[in-house]
Amino acid sequence: MNSPANLNPRPFAPRYPQLGTGPVPVSSAVDPAFFELERERIFRGMWVNLILREEDLPQPGDYFVRYLEAQDASILVVRGDDGKLRAFHNVCTHRGNQVADEGAGHCKGFQCNFHGWTFDTRGRLAFVTDEQRFHNLDKSALGLPAVHLDTWRGFIFVNLARRPAQSLELAMAEFNQDLKPFPFEQMVLAGRYRYNVNANWKVTMNAFQESYHGAFVHKLSVGQCISPQDPYLAVQRIKLQENGNQSVSVHLAPHALSPAEKLAFGFGATFTQGGGAAEAYPGTAQAQVRDWGFDLNIIFPYSRINVGAGWYYVDAFWPVAHDRTVYELAYYFPMPQRASEMISQEYSKIVLRDLSREDLATNEATHRSLRSGAIRQMNLSDQEIAVRHLYHTVAARCGKELAK
Amino acid sequence: MSAATALPTPFTHLEPWLSFALPSEDARMRRRLAASMDELVGLYQALVGDMPAIAAHLDQWPLADLPAAQKPLLYLALSFMESAMAVEAFHQPGPPHATTPESMVVFPGRAEEMLSRA
Q1: Structure pTM?
Q2: pLDDT in tens, chain A (404 residues)
Q3: By the CB < 8 Å criterion, does A358 face chain B?
Q4: A106 touching chain B per CB within 8 A
Q5: d(CA A314, CA A302)
Q6: Which of A50, A172, A218, B113 has the most CB atoms lying inside 10 A of its own CB?
Q7: Which CATH entry fits the domain spanning A4-26+179-397: 3.30.565.10, 3.90.380.10, 1.10.3810.10, 3.40.190.170?
Q8: Do B74 and A339 touch (CB under 8 A)?
């Protein structure tokens, strides 16, 4: 095959000389102390992609609560009676109890179940039980503690820093040009999955940053999409950004369709369709990559907005502890108008779900091995430069620059 | 989450597979992963030829207005896609090397929620 990637087997290292080519130490994936450093230097100041869309909270009083393990904070997002979305710490300003349970719902306000203090949908303290017995209480200063909230193309992000180091728009960097035109608003949630993984968040992510593993991990699930002329799915397009963001295109070879795949393809867009195009699907690299399948867009450090022609999925590798991660994936398609479209979408959802389960199985085995200390470093090919980039970016942020 | 008891005409011949006509993706996935390959191959072979006709039949209605009596047929068609990965790709119910279904949660999408409400 005469793709540029195959003409030069190691095209990416020269483009990113700052990353070097040597082995990468694995200590940052298994050391509990390093996880605390990441929490302090990276997680607490980052824009957190909540995998939540503005349209998930359409009405005043609609709210969402999530405990963020990496930031060790419970966050409440609510649409106020003035129509505005706001985020708060889910913490009563009386003595610190939580005012809402984990999950989503609709309410007129939040009543703390400890002593009944009540906050309105704009976060203001509206009622104090037996208020006369308090000393000089200034209710106007005792609203729920605010958290910075911003949206990017309908995705809701929060930032727990007192003053975020940069705006969300700046954090998205090149995605503001490359990804922004994607028609996110034309699609709705088709399926959502949550997996508990016994592995470090970086180890978990690494299996989702390269396609070199495809021929092995996914040989049965999507083996038909791998061409004998390009057996290891050599990456054609990769963009590693200064701030840690990454974009990697995955290609899928044209192939004979199985009966189920043919049905799915006949009724809609599919995960496995592949195919180049003279004109790219908006917000994708379709026109730049031969047999383009989809783009993985990694928002540093641990969430992604991955786009195909006619679908997208958002996922996050939520760090829980140095050896535990929650992988969460939400898959979006246009709302099916007919049963046939729903049947078609089901095929892609099942393929992606089975693929995820295959990837995550390697993560747990890998983490156990690294923890044993049997190997102290990993040896990465040019195809795995996004993995290298992640370790370098994390180390630099934590003040522990890696050797080149 | 119980299975339906009947399929609409002209698909009543598929009623032996009603235990797969489950209304949630989570239940369909777990039914597939708990099934034997004999069951999954049986389901797949029973439906593969009928799938275009099933889709054409269900497409008589907008999905939002699909009558309750038709829903088990749609749920069975969605389970066909579960069986397809087992039969066409893995030759066993699920991927040979995969995380356990106990370690994961499957939440409903918008279409599944709409169908379960109406």
Answers
A1: 0.95
A2: 445 445 789 999 999 999 999 999 999 999 999 999 999 999 999 999 999 999 999 999 999 999 999 999 999 999 999 999 999 999 999 999 999 999 999 999 999 999 999 999 999 999 999 999 999 999 999 999 999 999 999 999 999 999 999 999 999 999 999 999 999 999 999 999 999 999 999 999 999 999 899 888 988 888 888 888 888 888 999 999 999 999 999 988 888 899 999 999 988 888 887 665 667 899 999 999 988 999 999 999 999 999 999 999 999 999 999 999 999 999 999 999 999 999 999 999 999 999 999 999 999 999 999 999 999 999 999 999 999 999 999 999 999 888 87
A3: yes
A4: no
A5: 11
A6: A172
A7: 3.90.380.10
A8: yes
- The beta-carbon neighbor of A221 closest among B25, B66, B95 is B95
* Contact call for A354 and B103, based on CB within 8 A: no
Q: Which residue's structure tokens are 């004979």? A: A256
Domain boundaries, chain A: 4-26+179-397, 46-170
Residues of B in contact with A337 (CB under 8 A): 62-64
Nearest Cα residue in chain B from A197: B103
ipTM value > 0.95: yes
**In sequence order, which ranges of A10-124 are alpha helices (DSSP H)?**
27-30, 32-41
Interchain pair B84, A259: CB under 8 A? yes
Which residues in chain B are closer than 8 Å to A339, comparing Cβ atoms? 55, 58-59, 61, 63, 66, 74, 77
Mutate to test the interface with A, among B81, B91, B114, B115 (most CBs of A within 10 A): B81
Q: Which of B90, B96, B109 is the closest to A189 by Cβ?
A: B109
In chain B, what is the straight-line distance between the N-terminal and C-terminal CA atoms, in Å?
16
- For residue B96, the chain A residues in CB contact (below 8 A) are 220
Q: Tell which CATH architecture fits domain A46-170.
A: 3-layer Sandwich (2.102)
| Residue located via tokens 């795949």 | A261
Computed on alpha carbons and rounded to an integer, the radius of gyration of chain A in Å comes to 23
| DSSP letter (8 states) at residue A102 | S
Cα distance from A215 to chain B (closest Cα, Å)? 14
The burial class, CB within 10 Å (0-12 / 13-18 / 19+), for A80 is middle
Query: Which helix (H) or strand (E) segment is B77 a member of?
Result: helix B71-84
Q: Which chain B residues touch A264 with a CB distance below 8 Å? A: 81
Residue A73: strand pairing partners: A68
What single-letter DSSP state applies at residue B86? I
User: Tokens 């939580």 identify what position?
Assistant: A98
